[in-house]
Amino acid sequence: MKSKKNFAPWLIIVGAFLILVNTLYVVGSGQPIILSSFYVGSVDQIQSLTSVWGRMAFGFPGIAEGWAAIIWIFLAVFNFLLSFLLLVKTGKNMSLKYIGLILSLLSIAVGGGFILGLVLCFFGYLVVLQPGLPFEETFIGKIYGVAKLDSSFLSRIAEEKTALHTGALVLVFVNLLSGIGSGLYSYNLEIIRANLDTISSSSSQAILFEIFFMGGVHWGLPLVAMVFLQMGLAIIKWAIFSLIIYVLGAKMVGSSARYEDIAKIVAFAYVPVCLQIFMPAVLVWPWLFFEWPFIVILVTNFWFFVILMTGLKIVLDISAGRAFGVSVFCSSIYWFFNSVVLSSFLNFPGIRFSIQPIDVSVLIVSTSALVAVMLGVFKRYVSV
């Protein structure tokens, strides 16, 4: 792979250019960019739809009007010029790099360069903020290595002494993004539910039109507090999940792996969950209340499971079949604890799925135990 000195500044330039184009378009049109599957002109039409309708929004309504439009154009131009300056002096001007990162993050209000520009700038700036390191050793490089299921990289994580600290940072980073995404989505979902019940009023019609057709996203201070609460809980749940795997996985298969080795793999396995931050940008009717969030969570958690299984195969030094059995068994126990036990004490914004009655949840855990037995998880032998 090319050194970060060669490709990271170019990522920033491309991203900053997309942000500039997106900003000029939003300012010129006076509204966010809305992409929808086909034309629907009113909330009443959405309610009567029998086929699937979806929309994606880039930016928030009313954010780039009047004098604010001039400010957003100035910030976008400055960010674009800053990207060229960093290309010339990659190893210097650390303060300018932080300024560029902040400006890129702020661009989400006007569409974030069609989202892609923001992502490119974000990744690029995180790379150049760690000068002197090969790409694979940077924070983003490690996230990339895990996401693409690089088994050699997962092996290095298990042996790296600082990987536990980095894993904790990854966990906080991922839960910040996923907490914002799932929290905003569920928060606005409740607003949609409440206003659908009173849709005959003009105020409810206005709110629903803003959310569905103008890309409006509502938030409140309780939501912000809950995002930080989720980040803190993520550390606790990480420790519990790692302990479950250590006791019911490593010890049962006779592995000599340490608790911290397993904790490293578990932390990095959460990387795909950060994609849930994009959930509020998309609405799908009539899949709004269940199918759409379920699909997103299913995909990201399946990706998480594959990374976990691959990592446990390496750390526990067992076959792929046994690694699958350990992952299924321990994940089902953790899921039962998280969805049945922990959720009964805590109630905060976010997308969660629980299965009722509780007997069905117990059946799922029992079935996973049988799968683990059939795959030889509890046999004490070392595969070759």
Explain what the structure shows.
The chain is mainly alpha-helical and 384 residues long. The protein folds into 2 domains: 1-41 and 56-137, no CATH class; 147-384, no CATH class. It has 14 helices and 3 strands. It has helices at residues 4-29, 43-47, 67-88, 94-106, 116-128, 139-147, 151-159, 163-197, 202-214, 221-253, 259-269, 291-315, 320-341, 358-374; strands at residues 33-36, 53-58, 282-285. The mean pLDDT is 86.
| Oligomeric state as shown | single chain
Number of separate helices: 14
User: Over the alpha carbons, how many angstroms does the gyration radius reach?
Assistant: 23 Å
Strand percent estimate: under 5%
**Mean pLDDT rating:** 86
Strand order of the largest sheet: 1-2-3
Contiguous uncertain segments of 5+ residues: none
Biggest sheet record? 3 strands, antiparallel
Given the C-alpha coordinates, what overall shape results? flat
SS class:
mainly alpha
**Portion of residues in helices?**
55-70%
- The count of strands amounts to 3
Q: What letter string, H or E per element, gives the SSE order?
A: HEHEHHHHHHHHHEHHH
Q: Tell me the count of domains.
A: 2
Distance between the termini: 32 Å
